Amino acid sequence: MKRTLLQAVAIVWLMLLSVTVQAQGEAFAPVRNAIRSGSSKELAQRFGSTVELSFDGDKQSYSATQAEFVMKDFFGKNAPASFDFVHYGGSNEGTPYAVGKYVSKGGAYRMFVKMKSAQGNLVIDIIEFTKE
Asked: Is residue 98 a contact partner of residue 24, using CB atoms and an 8 Å limit?
């Protein structure tokens, strides 16, 4: 009896976990599509009022407009050959994040994107690129 109950709880927990991961993946889908296409304009539509951008540890906060131009410059110098998120997660407070691999002709980058809630919407708070 205990074993059956334990198995049932485990199955329900795994189902809830898969729904959470799927929901996080869906929240990041427009971000993934913008990065894949190298579109700073589409990506900027997901920015919060300020965005922290980091390239190999050099972090700086920008307004959404400034961040769009910084990303346009990055995509211009490092046009995407491929990109995909490889891991989704969330903090204890529910802040979603994703880790991906960005490949350009100039090299590969590990990419970290963290979102935050602003006025009921999820917006990009941090983007980090680390050259591999």
From this structure: yes
Lookup: tokens for 115? 């979102």
Please give the domain boundaries of the chain with CATH numbers for all domains: 2-131 (3.10.450.50)
pTM: 0.79
CB atoms < 10 A from the CB of 59, how many?
A: 11
Query: Using H for helix, E for strand and C for coil, what is the string for 56-119?
Result: CCEEEEEEHHHHHHHHHHHHHHCCEEEEEEEEEEECCCCCEEEEEEEEECCEEEEEEEEEEEEC
In the block, residue with structure tokens 């990506």? 43
* Phi, psi dihedral angles at 78 (to 5 degrees): -135, 65
The Cα 119–Cα 21 span in angstroms is: 23
Q: What is the pLDDT of residues 6-43, one digit of tens each?
A: 555 445 444 444 334 344 457 899 999 999 999 999 99
C-alpha closest to that of 51 among 117, 127, 109: 127
